[in-house]
Each structure stands twice: as C-alpha cells, then as structure tokens.
Design goal:
about 290 residues; two-stranded parallel ribbon; single chain; 13 helices; 5-stranded mixed sheet; binds NADP nicotinamide-adenine-dinucleotide phosphate; alpha/beta
Length: about 290
C-alpha cells in the first residue's frame, strides 16, 4: 500500500522521498522518480507531510523511535495510513503532539488496486489544521475522503465498524457458498447475484442506520419477524443438508432473542436492542 501511495503521488508530480525497511523495495520506486532516504529520519526531514503506511502500530512505533525521527518531525504533519486501533491512534497522536507535529489518522477502505478511484473511501480524523494541510494530498489517493472530526481515534473506530460489517458479510457469503456447493449450485452465478444485490442492500442498511439514530422503530421497510423466520429457515435447511452450522446457529441465537423480547413487529433495526444487552444475556438465552 505504501508503494501505491508513493506511485500515485509521483504520477501527480509530487516530490516524494521514500524509506522502507527492506531497501530494495524503496530502490524500485527510485526508478519511478522517488528520492530514497537512507534512514527514517532523513525521510521525515525531506518533506512537510510525512506519511507512514506499514504493517501495524508496532512497526510504526519502531520507525518513529528510530534515531533522529522525533527531532525531525517538529512542525510537520504526520499522516498515519497504517491500520491501527482507536487507542493506538490516540497514542501516536500524543507522540506527534509531544514532538511538535500535527497528526492525522487514516483508515484506507480499499485494496491497493482500488486506490485513486472516484469512489475510493479513505477515513481520516485528527485536528482540523492537520486535515487542511493534507487534504490536497489525500484527494490524490481517493475521491471519497471522509473527515470524521478532531478526535484522532474516530477513523480507527469507524474502521472497526466497517470491518465488522465486512466480516459479517464474508461469513454469511461463505455460508451461502457452502449451501451452494453442497447442492451443486453454480458459484459464479452466486457471486454475480450477490454483486448485483449489493448496492441496493447498501441503501437498505443506510435506512436501518437512520432508524437507529431516530429511535423510531415503527416498521418502515422490513418487520424484524421476517428475518427471525428467514434465519430459522437457514438453520433448519443447514441441518437438513448436513453442513457446518456455526454461522446460522450464531445468527439465529440473536434473532430468536429479539423475538423472545417481543421485537418481531418492529423494524429490523430493533435488533440493536438485543446487541445493547451485555453479551452474557445472549449466552443465557442460548
Ligand atoms: N493491502 C490492502 O489491501 C490494505 C487495505 C487497507 C489498509 N491497508 C493497511 O495498509 C498498511 C500496509 O499494508 P500492506 O498491504 O502494504 O502490507 P503489510 O504487510 O501490512 O505492510 C508491509 C510494510 O510494512 C513494513 N514493515 C513491517 N514490519 C515493519 C517493521 N517492524 N519496521 C519497519 N517496517 C515494517 C514492510 O517492510 P518490509 O518491506 O521491509 O517487509 C512493508 O513496507 C496496513 O496497516 C494495512 O492494514 C492495506
């Protein structure tokens, strides 16, 4: 991802200085016009805007603690493009502030090949000044840069929320693939059908988030009881087919609890009321 960011900036005529732990990878970028720094401190000293995009928070900290980095960072904007947790974002912001730098935390929502598209989503948070100083650069990386506010932890928090959605969808998709392959369905059609459904489903979820925000759970699109029945049907059919039932057992436990709580005639988003309970009450319901 770091190499992709450097390449996109070079293509837009930016002067880019790169450093990478494995020097050979940085040298590849030299052939495309980047300056190669011999140390993290040299890279930091070269530009007013410093972008870090490495494996994780631990790798970031190792780089920031390298000789001369703390002194060189003063007056610069540190843009953290490494995926981190909310607490890690706060810790790096505190480090940046302590050393006189502005801090912006970023959470990239796409793979490297999907960067710099009109719909490329990049979540950022940090001081308004840090955002202003890096906005032009960020817009090179993606057309949908979303500034979430001054609290540096917000981008990482939103990243946890969107990743929860993504991994929930992946689990459901994979269970669907198991249903498909156990019954001889064409999985290419399955993928194509899910892709065709997805934009509309996104709009539906947007509606449901509006319902949660409004706290008005009167049925507006989808009564919860339909989903209770659908998830039970998936579970029963899964048992009939003799395939792994991990996903539908988990899902039906939550939907059945919603039904037991009398939420069936409310909008689907009322499921949040079950999830607001401590986890243990779900275990007891099982
Ligand atoms: N790829 C994606 O689809 C994607 C999407 C969204 C967000 N991101 C985020 O972007 C960040 C980078 O991801 P990636 O896909 O480029 O691959 P990655 O394997 O997560 O990161 C590889 C980079 O981290 C460096 N690195 C690892 N440990 C290090 C250490 N201790 N000290 C210094 N450098 C270290 C590697 O250096 P060497 O070359 O020396 O090994 C390499 O430059 C991650 O936080 C990831 O979550 C990636």
């Amino acid at each position: 991802m770091g190499a992709t960011i450097a390449r996109l900036l070079l293509a837009q005529g930016y002067r880019v200085t790169v450093w990478n732990r494995t020097g050979a990878k940085a040298e590849m970028l030299a052939r495309e016009g980047a300056q190669v720094a011999s140390s993290p401190a040299e890279a930091v000293a070269a530009s007013a805007l410093v972008v870090v995009c490495v494996h994780d928070h631990k790798a970031t900290r190792e780089i920031l603690q390298a000789d001369g980095v703390a002194a060189a960072i003063s007056g610069r904007v540190l843009v953290q493009m490494t995926t981190t947790s909310p607490q890690e974002a706060k810790d790096t912001e505190a480090w940046a502030r302590e050393h006189g730098a502005d801090y912006l935390d970023g959470a990239i929502q796409v793979a490297p090949d999907q960067m710099a598209q009109p719909d490329t989503t990049i979540l950022v948070s940090g001081t308004g000044e840090a955002y202003q100083r890096s906005e032009k650069f960020l817009k090179v990386l993606g057309g949908n840069v979303t500034y979430l506010g001054e609290n540096a932890a917000l981008a990482a928090t939103m990243d946890l929320a969107t990743l929860s959605y993504v991994y929930g969808a992946i689990l459901g998709f994979m269970h669907g693939a198991r249903i498909g392959e156990s019954q001889g369905l064409d999985l290419e059609s399955y993928g194509a059908i899910v892709a065709a459904m997805s934009p509309g489903f996104g709009e539906f979820l947007k509606h449901e988030s509006g319902v949660i925000r409004s706290s008005n759970y009167a049925v507006s699109q989808s009564p919860l009881k339909i989903s209770v029945e659908a998830v039970d049907r998936i579970l029963k059919s899964t048992h009939d087919m003799g395939i792994n039932d991990g996903f539908p057992v988990y899902a039906s436990r939550i939907f059945r609890q919603a039904d037991a709580d009398g939420l069936g005639n409310e909008e689907l988003a009322a499921l949040i009321k079950v999830l607001r309970k401590p986890g243990r009450s779900l275990e007891q319901a099982a």
